[in-house]
Amino acid sequence: MSLRLEPGESVGLIGPNGAGKTTLLKLVAGITRPSEGQVSSRGRVASLINLGAGFHPELTGRENILLNGVILGLTRREVKQRFEQIVEFADLGAYIDTPLKRYSSGMYARLGFAVAAHVDPDVLLVDEVLSVGDVAFQDRSIRKMLSFRDSGRAILFVSHNLSAVEMMCQRAIWLDHGQIRQTGPTAEVVRAYLDAVDDSLVADATENGIVASDRDPIGVTDVEVSDANAQPRVEFEYGEPLRVRLRCLARHAVEQVQCSVTVRGDYGPLFTATSERFPRWHVGAHEIECIFETLPLLPGLYRLDVQVRHAGSAAWALPRTMAAFRVATDLAAFGSDSVVGVTKSRGGFLAVAYDWRVQSSAGEQTLAGLRLPTTSRSGR
After folding, report:
1. At what angle do helices 76-90 and 61-71 cross, to 10 degrees?
2. Residues 6 or more apart from 23 whose CB is under 8 A from it?
3. Is the pLDDT of residue 144 over 70?
4. How many CA atoms lie within 13 A of 328 on its CB side?
5. Conformational region of residue 134, where left means phi above 0, alpha means psi within -120 to 50, and beta covers everything else
6. Residue 246: what pLDDT?
7. How remote is the C-alpha of 238 from its chain's centroid?
8. Burial of 188 (C-beta count, 10 Å sphere; 0-12/13-18/19+)
9. pTM of the model
10. Are strands 154-158 and 171-176 parallel, antiparallel or unpaired?
11. Distance set, CA 98 to CA 55, 88, 90, 93, 183 (Å)
12. What percent of the chain stands above pLDDT 90?
């Protein structure tokens, strides 16, 4: 593996757990020594890998700011000059003189990030900072890192939040078991990674996800995706109907049966159809169909999560990914020069028509936006 990070460049590392992302950051930070090869850096390096590393739980927040700032390379005078900014950023004013052992994990993380972010580094190493702290802290964190990027510092950014990677980084590296699968412009690498994840999930669902445990009174034995004419398909156009047929086997008589089908994007559910409750299902085969009248989706691969609940279902039971389909319409052809979204994570998921209007002393000007294709309902 070879990686070069230039001044002013922001590079994102993406990949599954165990791919080697954190290990690479630890090598660059000097926390871990390489077993072979070389790692060299110039300038001050600040690492946000283990937030709060170097803190002492018996010391107060104030004392730990002074201690940790010096550990990270500042002089005592520099720490004192930045002390108020650090406290304000961490939002711990009322607790700054409380020992850290009484801090919550979120407070601990806020103080750790605040100190590291005010070291004024030449290279910033960030590992999953957005996974800790509350929403307000996460917002301050991302804004601070964006200010680093825009001021010409180098950033090596690790996160499973791919939207944050696309927003933060000009270039991305997809790692898999310590090997580089792909490197290049962030949007292209993220798109390739998401496609691979989707394909893997769909394959797993097809091979392992259909038949439920014998202990479950209801098993979903087959999920079929089809068009308006009930013809099985996995590729659709924008605005077409989508039919989802579930074939189920009731091993025992069950009551209060309720089915749900959820269309998922890259990061979570987009919309769900939930049936009313069927009072009773007798032992044997059952078939239920859900029809979505139109697909208001941008091009891409989408997953279907399916759940069949009944009176005896556990409260924590979760839907299972059992099928997938692709929307293939090139919506960019229906706009002028507008960008629909290079990847779903940046362009969103739902296709909504829009125009732009500009009002000035020269009058009003209308800029063409996105025009959606007309949909045909023939065959329904």
Report:
1. 130
2. 32, 178
3. yes
4. 6
5. beta
6. 93
7. 24
8. middle
9. 0.66
10. unpaired
11. 13, 16, 14, 10, 46
12. 29
